[in-house]
């Protein structure tokens, strides 16, 4: 099995690559070749039992060897994140839309259509704090990033219909806790309020403690993306409804609804006293973006398709400590 990860230098791309290197297979099939692509050439995972090719370039102008002949699976993770896409409309549209067009064109050139696993987002919906969205909820984005993700889903679904590729779009919840440093995502604070105190650093909270979000751990997100790469194509569009829904290639995975207060309570269980490092600092721009995102989903379809339920909040925090805390501390030059 030949696999490409676009956005291979990002934290999800690195985790998927590490998982493949450790297990050597995907869905019971041996991995024979892995290509990692990003703006800067990604570091290959340690100990991979197969060749790894690391490439740098522009996702809008994909080189031929980014998705080489014989590729079976493409993880399309490359993106400009939410607040950055809102602040720079041209950049967001270029990467998030034209980049997806480039992926379709590259797949069209292959003799066999590959599975394309695309990371979409809950930001493609609106509804706010009171929303609990069903699987067939209409996407009405309230920001440019969400609109670009929703449009990319349709582009990939149409390319699947035409037989150019075999897409599964996973509308990821807000990933918490992200390793490394804060990024330009509007939801970055949902990781910072846990990650920074675990590092002994202060963090700013731009929303009230009763603010709730639909979140997922990196462990769950990676598991869902890997599952999406191997799920039976015939079942992807099975929503149990009208025959036209067989064209639906997008899935709302089973995240969890969590308020800031609940997240800080879980932090206290893992590291008592750490939540005192979180300071309330209002940010109306951030609150305006994340306040439109739905706080909960009813992911019946994902569970029926075998996507694993999410762990508890305390387990989410403990997973970051086990998987990423030491590496994050090292990356940021912090003492042990």
Verbal overview:
It is a single chain. The chain has 336 residues and is an alpha/beta fold. It has helices at residues 11-23, 82-87, 89-108, 144-161, 189-198, 218-230, 233-236, 260-270, 284-290, 300-304, 313-323, 325-331, and strands at residues 2-6, 25-26, 29-30, 33-38, 52-56, 73-76, 115-121, 166-172, 174-175, 203-205, 212-216, 250-251, 256-259, 278-280. It has a seven-stranded parallel β-sheet with strand order 5-4-1-6-7-8-12, sandwiched between helices. The longest helix is centred in the first third of the chain and has 20 residues, at 89-108. The radius of gyration is 19 Å and the shape is globular. It starts with a strand and ends in a 5-residue tail after the last helix. The model is unreliable at 239-245 (pLDDT under 50).
Features:
alpha/beta; seven-stranded parallel sheet; three-stranded mixed sheet; 37% helix; 17% strand; globular
Topology overview:
Elements: E1 2-6, H1 11-23, E2 25-26, E3 29-30, E4 33-38, E5 52-56, E6 73-76, H2 82-87, H3 89-108, E7 115-121, H4 144-161, E8 166-172, E9 174-175, H5 189-198, E10 203-205, E11 212-216, H6 218-230, H7 233-236, E12 250-251, E13 256-259, H8 260-270, E14 278-280, H9 284-290, H10 300-304, H11 313-323, H12 325-331
Parallel strand pairs: 1-4, 1-6, 4-5, 6-7, 7-8, 8-12, 9-11, 10-14
Antiparallel strand pairs: 2-3, 11-13
Helix pairs in contact: 3-4, 5-8, 8-11
């Amino acid at each position: 099995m030949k696999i490409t990860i676009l956005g291979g230098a990002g934290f999800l791309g690195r985790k998927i690559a590490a998982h493949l290197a450790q297990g050597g297979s995907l869905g019971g099939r041996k991995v024979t070749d892995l290509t990692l692509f990003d703006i800067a050439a990604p570091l290959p995972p340690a100990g991979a039992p197969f060749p790894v090719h690391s490439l740098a370039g522009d996702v809008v102008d994909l080189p031929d060897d980014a998705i080489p002949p014989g590729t079976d699976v493409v993880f399309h993770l490359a993106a400009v994140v939410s607040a950055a896409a809102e602040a720079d409309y041209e950049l967001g549209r270029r990467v998030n839309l034209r980049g997806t067009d480039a992926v379709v064109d590259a797949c069209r050139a292959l003799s066999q259509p590959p599975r394309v696993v695309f990371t979409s987002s809950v930001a493609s919906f609106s509804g706010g704090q009171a929303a609990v969205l069903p699987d067939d909820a209409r996407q009405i984005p309230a920001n440019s990033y969400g609109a670009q993700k929703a449009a990319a889903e349709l582009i990939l679904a149409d390319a699947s219909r035409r037989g150019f590729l075999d897409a599964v779009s996973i509308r990821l919840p807000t990933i918490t806790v992200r390793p490394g440093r804060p990024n330009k995502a509007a939801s970055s604070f949902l990781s910072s309020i846990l990650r920074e105190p675990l590092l002994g650093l202060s963090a700013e909270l731009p929303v009230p403690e009763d603010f709730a979000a639909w979140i997922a751990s990196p462990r769950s997100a990676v598991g869902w993306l890997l599952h999406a790469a191997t799920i039976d194509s015939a079942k992807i569009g099975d929503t149990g409804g009208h025959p036209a829904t067989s064209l639906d290639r997008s899935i709302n995975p089973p995240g969890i609804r969590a308020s800031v207060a609940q997240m800080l309570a879980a932090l206290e269980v893992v590291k008592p006293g750490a939540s005192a490092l979180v300071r309330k600092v209002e940010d109306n721009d951030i609150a305006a973006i994340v306040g439109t995102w739905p706080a909960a989903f009813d992911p019946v379809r994902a569970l029926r398709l075998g996507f694993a339920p999410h762990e508890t909040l305390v387990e989410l925090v403990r997973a970051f400590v086990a998987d990423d805390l030491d590496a994050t501390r090292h990356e940021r030059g912090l003492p042990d």
